[in-house]
Amino acid sequence: MESFEELSGIDLLIPMWTMGELSGDATRSVLGAVSDGLGIAGCHGGMCDAFRNNTEWQFLTGGQFVAHPGNDGTEYTVNIRRGSSPIVEDIEDFTLKSEQYYMHVDPAIEVLATTRFSSDPARGPHTTNGEVDVPVIWTKRWGKGRVFYNSLGHNVEIFSIPEVAETMKRGFSWAARKKENEVT
Questions:
Q1: CB of 146 within 8 A of CB of 119?
Q2: Interacting residues of 150 by C-beta distance below 8 A, sequence separation 6+
Q3: Residue 27 belongs to a domain with what CATH number?
Q4: Residue 4 contacts by C-beta under 8 Å, 6 or more apart in sequence?
Q5: Which end of the chain, N or C, is less surrounded by CB atoms within 10 Å?
Q6: Which one has a higher pLDDT value, 41 or 99?
Q7: Are 164 and 150 in contact (CB under 8 A)?
Q8: What 3 state SS string does the chain have?
């Protein structure tokens, strides 16, 4: 991992790491750089299933993957929260087949899209709680920095879905470090 000084020279960090470990020094470098204005944006397990034992990382990113009941090939709908952000403006709800990520999330995130988990008992013992809406796309602030996350992305084909590609493009742009004279 880069040092704080090296990270302060870039505009956007896009983590692509599932599980693994991040040293205390590297964690402090990333948290400090994001607090100082570095943007961080990512998807699926590459950001919110990274460094499972690192609660500081989870606090920064706004969530942690915990399960995908039904595994890959589950058909579900992504429900856009209208008016929540320019990132999802003019994007309609859409259906896909992939892993449906069940996430533990920070209550401070700004939820831009959700998915509903079924109460079908065949999906597992969690279904006795009834249907549950879980965030799919969110943003968060961290000091001067911006955090964007999208839980979609198990397979590269997901990014051929226009709504996914567009939210990723807009989210990465939103999260990137803002210049002094740039309107936010």
A1: no
A2: 42, 43, 44, 136, 137, 164, 167, 168, 171
A3: 3.40.50.880
A4: 28, 29, 32, 33, 36
A5: C
A6: 41
A7: yes
A8: CCCHHHHCCCCEECCCCCECCCCHHHHHHHHHHHHCCCEEEEEHHHHHCECCCCHHHHHHHCEEEEECCCCCCEEEEEEECCCCCHHHCCCCCEEEEECCCEEEECCCCEEEEEEEECCCHHHCHHHHHCCEEEEEEEEEEECCEEEEEECCCCCHHHHHCHHHHHHHHHHHHHHCCCCCCCCC
Angstrom distances, CA of residue 80 to CA of 6, 106, 136, 138, 163: 36, 19, 9, 11, 10
Q: Return d(Cα 84, Cα 135) in angstroms, integer.
A: 13
Q: What is the pTM of this model?
A: 0.91
pLDDT in tens, 42-69: 998 789 899 999 999 999 999 999 988 7
Whether residue 184 is contained in a domain is answered as no
Q: Could you identify the residue written with the tokens 């590609």?
A: 165
User: Band of the pLDDT at 162, cuts 50, 70, 90?
Assistant: very high
Residue 181 placed within a domain: no
* Residue 119 is assigned to a structural domain of this protein: yes
Q: Name the domain count of the chain.
A: 1
Q: Is residue 120 part of a domain?
A: yes
- CA dist 154 and 167 (Å) reads 16
Q: Is the pLDDT of residue 33 over 60?
A: yes
